[in-house]
Design brief:
The protein has 1007 residues and is of the alpha+beta class. The protein folds into 5 domains: 341 residues, Alpha-Beta Barrel (TIM Barrel), CATH 3.20.20.300; 191 residues, Glycoside hydrolase family 3 C-terminal domain (Rossmann fold, 3-Layer(aba) Sandwich); 123 residues, Trefoil (Acidic Fibroblast Growth Factor, subunit A) (Trefoil), CATH 2.80.10; 117 residues, Immunoglobulin-like (Sandwich), CATH 2.60.40.10; 120 residues, Galactose-binding domain-like (Jelly Rolls, Sandwich), CATH 2.60.120. A hairpin with a 4-residue loop joins strand 34 and strand 35. It has 19 helices and 48 strands. Helix 5 packs parallel to helix 6, helix 5 packs antiparallel against helix 13 and helix 13 packs across helix 18. Helix content is 20%, strand content 26%. A 6-stranded mixed sheet has the order 9-26-25-24-10-11, with helices on both faces. Strands 18-17-16-15-12-23 form a 6-stranded antiparallel sheet.
């Protein structure tokens, strides 16, 4: 059933709902591509491909022995202008006269091939990050690339080899809806994981690509609320120290063939037209292909309103570096018309088009498209590679490696002889969930299923979901009934489709936090959702699709009565349920007063049932967490980080009922579980780890595998520990492990084992290095327990003195190493002086400062076992010379209201602020201070100016420059003010705004 919904309200609106992971192949959004039916797609891409000229094989671009740049130039020279413009769209049409087939950018492959049908589903990216095993992650990428080639062999037109994966955005805030898609909050760990995964995707050949990986989403993307309209301020230090280190390594290594531009605006300018895209191209000598996000090109002149016309915006994108426009599904007319318009208006030239098309063609050549099959080492991969036994085994290995033991008071591992009767309870106990970018699992081993298989006939498993069963009646005596048919039907009051009996009336209620519930009818075991005519149907296996239609809220209206509100992701359709003349439950009431009233009657308590099962068992495993389509996914950030109330109550009740309880958190993101940490005997975290989740979990619970996952993010105690989500600058906001000074629930890098590891004294091959040097650190690690196990040895550094605020500690190297019981392994780690560099705003460059650094080696960022100290003979940063022209954006500090904005639409960055906002410039040499000169802009009239103060925003006032209105925020004028003389040499200067204005550059002139 399809819901009756209006068209999406913005140009960036996503596709209609899809009923399953497989059906998602017909849709796209947010870093993905929209697909139509395979037949229509093939027609768009391959039309006329059979009409190949006899001489096509003799053309120079077909010669595999020529350099690729010569081949690209030859093909470009043979294409007409119209053919080249058509190739700027995501769906590049065929050129029959040259025997060039159609091509399209973008196939999703985040943790396995997605949306194309059954494929191996590996753990979510955040789970892969928890393995801290780059070798494993590269093998997962290799398997995914192989399966992608298998799908390509099935249908070359529909299954493209340019894969949009992985996500390299650092996970700076655990509330981000797309947390599951990233690897870690630490940019170095992200960079290593992205390099490993893309290395597997691209394959091992020096020239040919197995697939062409594209990193998402560049840059500054970490928030879903108004994501296409929000502008994030990313100061130079945050950009160079936090963003670039996550993206750059995979491009620099030659593994990632490009990046995708992000939806958001960064420093006042849409990411799709940001000059930062040019920096990406500087990271590699190999041509890179930069693609837009889905509907991103339309947004620039649409929801973002940055340009008035698509011709202007498309010209700007082309000049900024966009090579492929993902827009309007297979309909390329907007792109083609916009580019033609830009040409006619003189906004771009043919050279701009050639440059962009050349980038995408270079990738196509490396994919082997124009070469004989015998030259391409990947052309022999067939569909039999999909879901192979080897990939199933790898999926289990990956799911096992990411299991992270957070607490253990001796409850684990379970003993299959002593703990043979196990209660496995909770809403995630006997089900597995896919996420939006997941493939379709070919089989599913649930937690309960994996534990039952592990125990075999020698044990027993009792299950309970922990969900209340209710009956909904009306004040008039009617009862909501549901169809018992496999395909479901309309929910009705006093309906006859469900027949008689309790099951026809029983509804299981699952609470997912923030007041959102899902409803499952026991008449047929299907989930209730919005369908035709805005009526409620029980016809879905699980919540699914882009516009998730299966979400509701109960709102109390007094006298024990409630109304039911539809709470799906299509916000414009969030109304209340009424009862039609035919008894059908219909979502059409605008207010609670117009809605039908229900009296919920509890038929059975889910918590009571779980407690009954747990209290009589040898051990209890309570599995809680999230459903990836609800309360945190693309377009939806979390409001809180706590477990849903019903799940917290379930954990407490089961733990109190059985002293041998293990809490399993199966979630896409960190959860605040302070009660479980204080009271539960054991706590274990896993991501949604794919088809082998249950087997992997059972192997860890029963000690067949020794857990060695380590948290790739800080787990905070509550949402109160987090700053404003819109503050991207972790240096300023003080979050992630690098800057957080509070007491986390679980520290970055935390994870326990069933054995103990002892660290010996680290041996350094040198204690003093230059700014181009490196230190090798050798650390003996001894397994002092009686079980073999893996340890993740982590090396951090902490700079002791600096001109600027430095991280409390920062990860520099790590290794996951296997150590047998009683054995010692020496781990060799490296510290490069170049990695100790930070962005110096005074010189506009990365600088290794002269300083000492503590070398910290341990099992987590909070569990440092050994320390040493090195001396780095780097630069001594002199006092700031503010007499020279200084970019305002190169400040040392700023108030919360000050933000970075675009100086012009094409390039440059200014600081915008209002009355009371300020920016600071520390350690300035003021010996020759006489006057203040600045370039400012102000669109509106009224009084505004810049105060120059010493020491603080309300410190000594040296002078004030009045700023006149220029009539346009991009129209700058020079302002000046005479300043009082300052005694002394090194002082902190504060520029305080007295009204709305923009400040580009300034100087404190004394000559």
């Amino acid at each position: 059933m399809k819901p009756s919904i209006p068209p999406p309200p913005t140009p960036s609106g996503p596709p209609p709902p899809a009923a399953s992971a497989a059906a998602r192949a017909a849709a796209t959004v947010g870093g993905a591509l929209r697909r139509t039916a395979a037949a229509a797609l093939a027609a768009v891409l391959a039309a006329g491909a059979a009409a190949s000229p006899a001489s096509a094989d003799d053309l120079p671009f077909r010669d595999p022995d020529l350099p690729v740049d010569e081949r690209v130039a030859d093909l470009l020279g043979r294409l007409t202008r119209d053919e080249k413009i058509a190739m700027l769209h995501q769906y590049q049409p065929a050129v029959p006269r040259l025997d060039v087939a159609g091509f399209r950018t973008g196939t999703e492959a985040l943790h396995g091939v997605a949306w194309l049908g059954e494929a191996t589903v590996f753990p979510q990216s955040v789970g892969l990050g928890a393995t801290w095993d780059t070798g494993l992650v590269e093998r997962v990428g290799d398997a995914t690339g192989t399966e992608m080639r298998g799908f390509h062999a099935q249908d070359p037109a529909a299954h493209g080899l340019n894969v949009w994966a992985p996500v390299a955005d650092p996970l700076r805030d655990p509330r981000w809806g797309r947390n599951e898609e990233g690897y870690s909050e630490d940019p170095a760990l992200v960079g290593d994981m992205a390099t490993a995964y893309t290395g597997g995707l691209r394959g091992g050949d020096d020239f040919y690509l197995k697939t062409a990986p594209t990193l998402k989403h560049f840059a500054g993307y970490n928030i879903e609320d108004k994501r296409d309209r929000i502008s994030v301020t990313v100061p130079p230090r945050a950009l160079h120290e936090y963003v670039y280190p996550a993206f750059r390594p995979a491009v620099e290594a030659g593994n990632a063939t490009g990046v995708m531009a992000a939806y958001n605006m960064i420093n006042g300018r849409p990411a799709h037209v940001s000059p930062l895209l040019k920096d990406v191209r500087s990271w590699s000598d190999t041509p890179t292909m930069i693609v837009s996000d889905a509907y991103g090109p339309s947004n620039v002149a649409g929801s973002q309103g940055y340009y008035e016309t698509h011709a202007q915006s498309h010209a700007a994108m082309l000049k900024a570096g966009i090579d492929s426009y993902t827009d309007q599904d297979t309909d390329s007319s907007l792109t083609v018309d916009a580019v033609n318009g830009a040409l006619e208006q003189g906004l771009i030239t043919g050279a701009d088009i050639d440059r962009a098309v050349g980038h995408s063609l270079s990738v196509r050549f490396r994919l082997g498209e124009f070469d004989p099959d015998s030259r391409n080492p990947y052309d022999d991969i067939t569909p039999e590679a999909i879901d192979s036994p080897e990939h199933r085994e790898l999926a289990r290995e990956a799911a096992t490696e990411q299991m992270t033991l957070l607490k253990n008071d001796g409850a684990l591992p379970l003993d299959p002889e002593r703990d043979s009767d196990v209660a496995v309870v909770g809403p995630l106990s006997d089900t597995l969930y896919e996420d939006w970018y997941s493939g379709t699992m070919p089989y599913e081993v649930t937690p309960a299923g994996g534990i039952a298989d592990r125990l075999g006939d020698a044990g027993s498993v009792a299950t309970a979901e922990g969900a209340d069963r209710i009956r909904l009646t009306t004040p008039g005596g009617g009862t909501v009934t549901a169809s018992s048919g496999e395909d479901g039907g309309v929910l009705r009051v006093n309906g006859s489709e469900g027949g008689e009996g309790a099951d026809a009336q029983a509804i299981s209620v699952f609470e997912w936090g923030e007041g959102v519930v899902t409803l499952r009818t026991e008449a047929n075991g299907k989930v209730v959702g919005l369908g035709d005519g805005n009526r409620l149907f029980n016809d879905q296996e699980q919540p699914n699709g882009w516009f998730v239609q299966q979400l509701f809220r109960f709102e109390e209206v007094g006298d024990g009565q409630v109304v039911l509100k539809y709470d799906g992701y299509d916000e414009w359709n969030r109304k209340y349920v009424s009862i039609g003349e035919d008894g059908a439950l219909t979502v059409d009431a605008d207010t609670p007063g117009q809605a039908a009233r229900f009296e919920p009657e509890t038929l059975s308590s889910g918590t009571d049932e779980a407690v009954r099962k747990a209290s009589g068992a040898d051990a209890a495993v309570v599995v809680v967490g999230n459903m990836p389509f609800i309360n945190a996914r693309e377009t939806d950030d979390r409001e809180d980080i706590a477990l849903p109330k019903a799940q917290r109550e379930l954990v407490r009740a089961v733990t109190e009922a059985n002293p041998n309880t293990v809490v399993v958190l199966e979630s896409s993101y960190p959860q605040a579980v302070p009660w479980a940490q204080e009271n539960a005997p054991a706590v274990l975290w896993t991501s949604h780890a794919g088809q082998e989740t249950g087997n992997a979990l059972a192997s860890v619970l029963f000690g067949d595998a020794n857990p060695a996952g380590r948290l790739p993010q800080t787990w905070y105690r509550s949402v109160d520990d987090l700053p404003d989500m819109g503050n991207y600058d972790v240096i300023d906001s003080g979050h992630t492990y690098q800057y957080f000074e509070g007491d986390p629930l679980y520290a970055f890098g935390h994870g326990l084992s069933y054995t103990e590891f002892e660290y010996g004294a680290p041996e350094l091959d040198r204690r003093r290095i230059g700014e181009d040097g490196a230190v090798t650190v050798r650390v003996p690690v001894t397994n002092t327990g009686d079980r073999d196990g893996d340890e993740v040895v982590q090396l951090y550094t902490s700079q002791n003195r600096s001109r600027v605020k430095q991280p409390l500690k920062e990860l520099r190297d790590f290794e996951r190493v296997h150590v047998e019981a009683g054995e010692t392994v020496t781990v060799q780690l490296e510290v490069d002086a170049a990695d100790l560099a930070f962005w110096d705003v005074t010189s506009g460059s990365m600088v290794v400062e002269r300083a000492s650094h503590d070398v910290l080696v341990g099992s987590s960022s909070a569990d440092i076992r050994r320390t040493a100290r090195i001396r780095v003979d780097g630069e001594r940063i002199p006092p700031r010379d503010l007499a020279a022209p200084t970019r305002a954006a190169d400040f040392d500090g700023y108030s919360s209201g000050a933000e970075l904005v675009d100086e012009s639409k094409a390039e440059g960055t200014s600081v915008a602020g209002s009355a009371g906002d300020w920016i600071s410039f520390e350690d300035a040499d003021l010996r020759r201070l006489e006057s203040f000169i600045a370039r400012t802009a102000r669109a509106q009239g009224g009084a505004a100016g810049v105060e120059i103060r010493l020491g603080s925003p309300d410190g000594r006032l040296l002078g004030t420059a009045e700023v006149p209105a220029t009539g346009d925020e991009y129209e700058y004028t020079e302002v000046a003010a005479e300043l009082e003389r300052v005694g002394g040499r090194h002082r902190d200067v504060y520029l305080v705004f007295t009204g709305d204005l923009r400040l580009s550059t300034f100087s404190l002139d004394g000559r």
